[in-house]
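Re: beginner question about structure tokens

> Can someone show what the tokenized structure looks like for a real chain? I only ever see the sequence side.

Sure, here's an example I had lying around. Input first:
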Amino acid sequence: QVQLVESGGGSVQAGGSLRLSCTVFGRLPGGTATGWFRQAPGKEREFLAAINWSGTNTYYADSVKGRVTISRNNAKNTVYLQMNSLKPEDTAVYYCASETAGWSRIINVQSEYDYWGQGAQVTVAS
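And the corresponding structure tokens:
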């Protein structure tokens, strides 16, 4: 049984930073990619960033490029999302997800992901 658990969410002032963690419990196939998504109130869930198994490939949505960095530590079964220069519009529930088929050209597509975490709330105050 595979479980993804997000942590590190919370409240922060605009301009601040947060680092989210996604820890995987259970075994995933080698080559699994991991992505981060978010869903703001009243909006659809959107893709933010993805990283391949070895950490050599990353991909970012234009909306957050330059402000977020995705990384991973496979020894800890954890993927991170460092977010800087946070804005009130970054307020959302943030989800991590695993894509067991591995890296692809459609790594930003939600339906490609097999396992999802429960989400972590991030609130940015103005």
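Each token stands for a local structural state, so reading them left to right follows the chain. The first strand starts at residue 3 and ends at 7.
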